[in-house]
Inverse folding.
């Protein structure tokens, strides 16, 4: 674990650094709280912060204040275990530390075995949180992002879209999937979804299962032409796959809709255009890649009107 240690005494810092190094922890030591805080902010691999409750004159910030500021940096995706050291074992000091964002409280100077035990506790909690996060963000069948996590990642990417050279989206749907489930069974349908997900996840992209047999991809640094090449390569690879059933080897195909980011886009707008292109690919015969074009909107509206007219005539 990478640990940041803050104390106004360089002697204390050397002592704690030696203790932690013997247990293979990576240690960053600071006498100034603000420098330590900046390290925690910029280095996402920092898993624990150990600070003294004493005032740190060089940074105009106390250990208690540092606990508070560090706690604001911690998120569900980035756990930070905070330990406050103090020579004062007063109960009020302990309460103040915990209320200020500390996870733990330890005497100063720390006893080696106690310090090791508290960091083992930190590692257990961090591992548990990471596992819970994985379960919350990952689709259990395919191990790609679930819908919620995909859209959260998409929002972050679109917000910095102006700073990217380019950004594109691909929406993928397995063709005739209902027929696969109805004829071959849901176990075969699940295997088909898993096989397609493996191919999609192999690309360097943010990948998620949007629901059922539909997947989404966000490709940073890829313009429309580059995304179309990736989609076509995926289409070719998937159409060459076979899924074994009790009676035969089932051929899979997918349809693809592709769109490119435009200034001001949200993830919903970007995917909506890809979805319109996907609709065109489906209605045009499936097993094909279609790029979004504004004319597709008119075509879809005309098609919907035609279908409603036929239904009324019947």
């Amino acid at each position: 674990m990478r640990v940041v240690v803050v104390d106004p005494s360089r002697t204390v810092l050397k002592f704690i650094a030696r203790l932690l190094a013997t247990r293979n922890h990576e240690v960053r030591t600071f006498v100034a709280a603000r420098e330590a805080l900046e390290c925690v902010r910029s280095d996402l691999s920092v898993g624990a912060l150990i600070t003294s409750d004493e005032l740190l004159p060089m940074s105009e910030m106390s250990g208690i204040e540092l606990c508070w500021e560090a706690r604001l940096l911690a998120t569900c995706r980035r756990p930070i275990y905070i330990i406050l050291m103090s020579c004062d074992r007063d109960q009020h000091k302990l309460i103040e530390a915990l209320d200020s964002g500390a996870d733990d409280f330890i005497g100063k100077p720390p006893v080696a075995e106690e310090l090791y035990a508290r960091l083992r506790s930190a590692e257990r909690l961090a591992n548990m949180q990471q596992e819970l996060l994985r379960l919350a963000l990952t689709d259990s069948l395919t191990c790609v992002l679930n819908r919620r996590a995909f859209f959260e990642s998409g929002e972050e990417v679109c917000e910095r879209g102006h700073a990217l050279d380019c950004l594109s989206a691909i929406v993928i749907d397995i063709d005739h999937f209902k027929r696969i489930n109805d004829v071959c069974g849901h176990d075969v349908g699940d295997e088909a979804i898993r096989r397609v997900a493996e191919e999609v996840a192999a690309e360097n992209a943010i990948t998620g299962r949007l629901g059922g047999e539909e997947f989404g991809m966000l490709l940073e640094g890829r313009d429309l032409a580059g995304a179309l090449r990736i989609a076509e390569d995926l289409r070719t690879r998937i159409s060459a796959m076979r899924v074994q059933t009790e009676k035969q080897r089932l051929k899979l195909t997918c349809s693809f809709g592709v769109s490119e980011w435009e200034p001001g886009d949200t993830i919903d707008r970007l995917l909506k255009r890809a979805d319109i292109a996907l609709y065109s690919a489906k209605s045009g015969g499936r097993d094909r890649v279609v790029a979004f074009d504004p004319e597709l909107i008119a075509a879809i509206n005309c098609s919907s009107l035609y279908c409603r007219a036929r239904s009324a005539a019947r």
In short: Residues 147-313 form a domain with the Alpha-Beta Plaits fold (CATH 3.30.70.270).
